Amino acid sequence: QVQLVESGGGLVQSGGSLRLSCAPSEFTFSSDWMNWVRQAPGKGLEWVSNINSGERRVNYADSVKGRFTISRDNAKNTMYLQMNSLKPEDTAIYYCNLGRFWGQGTQVTVSS
Fold it and tell me: Which of 7, 65, 100, 102 has the fewest CB atoms within 10 Å, counting from its CB?
């Protein structure tokens, strides 16, 4: 059972930045696809971004492209999501996902 622990959420003003981290409890292969998924208040899950560092591949939802950057430090077995130019519509709980495993989520709130 892999546990995924997110951190880095918080309250920030519109235009600000935050960096989220996701640390699996066990070693994960660089070839594994890892995802960030978010859920805004009263809405369903929205996929945000994913990374396969072994293949040097990343993908982004159109809503965050150009503002968010996903990365992975294989030595630390940790995935990051650098979020810049944040907007109130980015307010959500952000979840880290690896296959069938999910983190507990970290709250991101962007005030206008």
Answer: 100
